Amino acid sequence: MPAHPNLQHFRTTDFWFADGNIILLVQDVAFKVHRGQLVRHSDIFHDMFSLPQPVADMVDGCPWVQLHDDPGDVLHLLRALYDGLYFTKPTSGDFCAVSAVLRLSTKYLIEHLRLRCLVRLEADWPTTLGGWDSREHQVTAGTRYCPREQFPHPILVVQLCQELGLDNILPSALYDLSRYGPRKIAAGATTVPALLSRRSRAIALADPIDPKSVIVRLDLPDLQAVFRGREHGQRFLAAFIEQELSGRSISENCANQHHANGHYCRESYYFIMLNLLRAVGGIATGRDADPLFSLLQAVEMLSRTDFSDGTRHCGLKICASCKEDFSLAVAKARQDAWDQIPTWFGLQAKATNYLARIVAAKPRV
Ligand SMILES: [Zn+2]
Fold first, then answer.
1. Which residues surround ligand 1, an ion (CB under 5 A)?
2. Where does the BTB domain lie (predicted)?
3. CA 97 to CA 80: how far, in whole Å?
4. Domain limits for position 211
5. Looking at the structure, do residues 190 and 240 belong to the same domain, yes or no?
6. Which of 65, 81, 142, 167 is the most buried (most CB within 10 A)?
7. Rounded to the nearest whole angstrom, what is the distance from the C-alpha of residue 300 to the centroid of ligand 1?
8. Is 187 inside any structural domain?
């Protein structure tokens, strides 16, 4: 324990209750809160506050403890404990509260808050292909794809996953990041220091353009893993084109098989192939190296009617049977791709049991 603290050296916030009965000292910030409110949700706080403290050592008439956390994180935790943690309209700014509360609810074993944060994170960084598709759908308005309004930069999420051992969320965060061009991936994320853990803040770089912002970059091994994953994704799509589109046979029940040996359906496959080839180089949509998206587009081409034959709008003349046949091939490929993502980013070897690690972790107070 440090020497008897002098409150004049501490800042306070709105978490300074006149009828509070425990003082938390966190770096240069003091919180006067209610022991029962904290003890009710955390055995760690219960044990911490049960240590007897001499009356002479009280501060503002209360016992006190020093927490080795970030004051901003503690403020978010107290808000969540006193006011609840709600995300009515999810935005990328929620990451500040989610990461802070997750960090401390993990450390202080506050299960209901930890679960709420994990549910929110998994909604944004899904662990299933269905979840991923619905996430992508949510942030697509027409042809406009605007993920950053709702989700924080994936580098921030990757770092949080690594810090807290969230191995299940890491693959979708890495996949999301790998869809950027290499230059953008290497450039890192520009963000405000409040969104970072102390560890990340310590290694963040000053932003030469905006003094209020910092730049967070992946370290070299992680950067290499992202580039490797990106290459795997591109190779996957190239292999799909080779195996499923190049010279694809018409389906067994092709309705066009008696007309020029299924010419319309073969021509449709060829058209889809040409479009996918554009996507391999990331020039079709500006979304580089996103096999899940490109494959979805391939299926959507089957029912689009906005192609042009030079004089009017039209759709592909592929028959229903070939459509179904190809749709099934794409669905299987997308699931295969999703299942392979952890391998693409070299994650298998690192996978550990998250719950076991949490139980084993000793709180540092
Ligand atoms: Zn056909």
1. 250, 254, 256, 265, 319, 322
2. 20-90
3. 9
4. 104-218
5. no
6. 81
7. 17
8. yes
